[in-house]
């Protein structure tokens, strides 16, 4: 039996999301000030460290989003709950967005550091595979079919895809490559101090708040879309039955 989660939603905004939105704007302004003005250039990385203040938070949030997709997929297969299906899908969309930003700002860093935007080294190869996998997840969800089949197939993909997250994250440590070693989550560079370290954690905090704001809105949009889809289906069935009564 499919469990239907039915929150009372009129729009996608609420007092909580408005607070998160304000905090996101304030946080972004603070990050720009600390990351571009107050924080000094790094002794080894020079000015390119400023890219990391965005690069590390975006990839961290993307990983978190993909983990939520994996967890939501597992629980959906167990409970058949609409809530977890829509949460998994919403997190995947936002994860793809942040992962795309990660690849973009990583390419900017690569151009400055390596002289080229892209090189096929271990971290970038695994990153590409992970990105394509979640795009595939979203493509599957866009295929017209019944919600149960869509949820089941996409959940299987969401569970399988999560296996590549630790591989992508540890690729720098497991194989030789050009990519810089980890800086946050084993990962804040122990040599970072003062405003550099503060900027790194500020960026991570700000993007987590932005992620929470986006996830709440995207989930509510998904829920409303499902309700609209159901209404449209009911109207089509009623119209067809009416046609049958006059034939």
Question: Could you explain the architecture of this structure?
Answer:
The chain is built from seven helices and no strands. The protein is an all-alpha fold. It has a single domain (15-238), classed as Four Helix Bundle (Hemerythrin (Met), subunit A) (Up-down Bundle). Mean pLDDT is 82; it is low at 184-188.
Q: Supply the helix-strand structural class.
A: mainly alpha
- Percent strand equals under 5%
Q: How far apart are the first and last residues' alpha carbons, in Å?
A: 35 Å
Number of domains: 1
CATH class label? Mainly Alpha
What's the main sheet like? Answer: none
Discrete helix count: 7
- In which range does the helix fraction lie? over 70%
Output mean pLDDT: 82
- Uncertain runs: 184-188
Instruction: Count every beta strand, where a strand is a DSSP E run of 2 or more residues.
Output: 0
Secondary-structure element order, N to C: HHHHHHH
Rg (CA only): 21 Å
- Which CATH-level-2 architecture? Up-down Bundle
Coarse shape: globular
